[in-house]
Predict the structure.
Amino acid sequence: MKESSIKIKSIFVLYWIFLAYILAALIWWYIALSRQNEQIASQQKQLAASGLYTSQTNIDDALQRKRLQYIGEGAIFLLLIAAGAIYLFKAVKKQLRLSRQQQDFMMAVTHELKTPIAVSKLNLETLQRRKLEETQLNKLLQNTVEEVDRMNDLCNNLLLSSNMESGNYRIQKEEMNLTALANHIATEYRRRFPERIIDLHATNDCVVHADPFLIEIALNNLLDNALKYSPKSGQIQLQVNQLEYHVQVIIGDEGPGIAASDKKKIFDKFYRTGSEATQRSKGTGLGLYLVKRIMDTHNGSVYVEDAQPLGSRFILLINQR
């Protein structure tokens, strides 16, 4: 990481040196042309004094026109160089930022996959080598299933992100009961995390026209985040409300909340907030990006607001038609 930082700084130093050289060459071009023009004008004045050339007034006018021409051309070149330099600087900076984000993403994915694989392997080796009581056996099996579920969710996110960006995923919308899906997801998460509190409030039979697979992934990602950033004693809220033209889904947590400056950025690909609480939490920066993409494909919306007295509330609005 240190070598990469030094390399990036070296690139920017060379960039500014190259830009300074171009500007210096432009200024030198103007000075050289002005001197040459003045020398020519001086020779013409000498010829005019001897009666072999036009009047001195015409020479001065021509010299002034040349100066204005050089200034105009120099200004245009300067503007073009400045515009190109700004565009190039932003493009390079964006590319370097994306490269760092991708590097962090790969490290996060590696960690996210390595941990459940290691835990599952340890659990299976324990089952293989020891005779356990039924309670211990069920606990190990449950823990293994949870780790496999984590890997499955991560693989789903990776595959879906790749397919949606390449245009290979075909959305299959149908009439679906969002209330039933919310009940199913809440039941599944209570099974996976029996020690966590997931409070469900849903209006009966909220029907939307959507892709069930995508909507389920969006809700899973939001619930994963809520569990990830909330204390173990905190309560997770899942609400499904019928509005006039939309169905509203609210997922709230009792975590540290999200800074105002991060509320729009959190839906960017690979973005993770820089708070200490976030850095301690697992994640790839892909979940909320997928939620936003899924809502966009359904002409819906997602936004986040502060919960009271603490935490965050993610709100989805899904069209009924």
Summary: The chain has seven helices and seven strands. Residues 56-129 form the longest helix (74 residues).
